[in-house]
Amino acid sequence: MEKIPNFFRCQSNKPFRLSVSEVTTIEISFHQSGYRDFKTHYIHFVYCYPINEFPELCSYTRMLKLMVRCSGSALLLLHSP
């Protein structure tokens, strides 16, 4: 019997290399920039220019997974008095 592939599980088991503070910094830089969508901001600005600040930068799709995991801390930071 042929095994059915599971498309809903993570294809890569690599650990995330960016910290929560780095992900939050990238999210805040997007909100302060003039870009309309995050993908353009990430590919044209973050992925090209601040290489020294984020030496372990990951791909765009991996960054989206990180943002889901770290979204609570960014919300707390933005809504604090």
Detail the topology: elements first, then pairings.
Layout: H1 20-32, H2 38-46, H3 60-79
Structure description:
The protein has 81 residues and is mostly helical. It has 3 helices and no strands. It has one domain (20-79). The protein starts with 19 loop residues before the first helix and ends with a helix. This is Mobile element protein.
Strand content: under 5%
Average pLDDT value? 75
Number of strands: 0
Number of domains: 1
Residue windows where pLDDT falls under 50 for at least 5 positions: 1-11
Q: Spell out the helices and strands N to C.
A: HHH
Number of helices: 3
Keywords for this entry:
81 residues; mainly alpha; 3 helices; 52% helix; 0% strand; globular; disordered N terminus; Mobile element protein
Provide a short characterization of the protein structure.
The protein has 81 residues and is mainly alpha-helical.
